[in-house]
Specification:
Largest sheet: 6 strands, mixed
Shape: globular
CATH topology of the domain at 5-87 and 158-246: Rossmann fold
Number of strands: 10
Number of helices: 9
Radius of gyration: 19 Å
Strand content: 15-25%
């Protein structure tokens, strides 16, 4: 059987003036894979996602997403993918249902199909009693749930998630994990997840890439990465790869 890749990047690079945010990225993500993208703040993770989701043109190199070119077919990429950015916004004067109806309309969904999906997603996420309340009355965690629903509402082939559980309590985070697992297994949806939460990545991701200063330095399964650097777990491996291990002897030196 021929393998299908929903992300293919070759020498993909993005410069902002004299700063190179992403350098010579070589990456393939097979369909149905849950891919974790880790790295420190400023490493280039969000820039990569903005390029691959059709929001930003690269400086050079090649890439395709769901078979579409990132230079010339960005609208087709947007139609085939879902994107939950790290700092998304909602229309606070709309209810959850109205907001999801709006998102559905943007993705050519309407009528009974759309309403069934909205009802089922809001029920699944525990919002069925608040679906008609304005989003301005929602907590940050409740808004995040609505945004997760809006990202998968049109059943995209590939979903980009940037820190998807950052505002969720443990129960809601566990639910998002199960949604990702179910969609990846049953519908072969591909997930491209940017996160700082190594325990989340270790638990949910098939393959992990670690980006440092715009360069993809590490790629493999969580277990492979842990074993390759002789680490206890993925968090320990991550700290060994990118630096940042804590010297506990100096933690209180500021008091002297």
């Amino acid at each position: 059987m021929t393998e299908i890749y929903d992300v293919i990047a070759e020498w993909l690079t993005k410069d902002f003036g004299k700063v190179t945010a992403v350098k010579d990225l070589e990456l393939k993500v097979r369909r149905g894979t849950t891919f974790g993208y880790l790295g420190p703040n400023g490493a280039g993770k969000t820039t990569t996602v903005r390029i691959l989701s059709g929001l930003l043109k690269p400086t050079r190199g090649k890439a395709s997403v769901c078979g579409f070119d990132v230079y010339t077919q960005r609208e087709q990429i947007k139609a085939s993918t879902g994107l939950l950015p790290e700092t998304p916004g909602v229309y606070s004067k709309l209810s959850a249902v109205e907001f999801l109806e709006f998102i559905g309309a943007l993705n050519d969904l309407s009528g009974e199909v759309l309403m069934k999906r909205i009802d089922r997603l809001l029920s699944l996420l525990g919002l069925e009693g608040r679906q008609n309340d304005l989003l301005e009355s929602y907590s940050s965690g409740m808004k995040q749930k609505v945004l997760v629903a809006s990202t998968i509402l049109h059943d995209p082939q590939l979903v980009f998630l940037d820190e998807p559980t950052s505002r969720l309590d443990p129960a809601a985070s566990a639910l998002v994990k199960e949604i990702i697992r179910a969609m990846a297994k049953e519908t072969e949806t591909t997930f491209f997840i940017c996160t700082h939460m190594t325990d989340f990545a270790e638990d949910i991701c098939d393959i992990i890439g670690i980006l440092t200063n715009g360069v993809l330095t590490t790629l493999g399964t969580p277990q492979e990465i842990v074993e390759n650097v002789d680490a206890k777990n993925l968090e320990d491996a991550y700290l060994k790869i990118v630096g940042g291990q804590v010297d506990r002897s100096k933690l209180l030196s500021w008091r002297s």
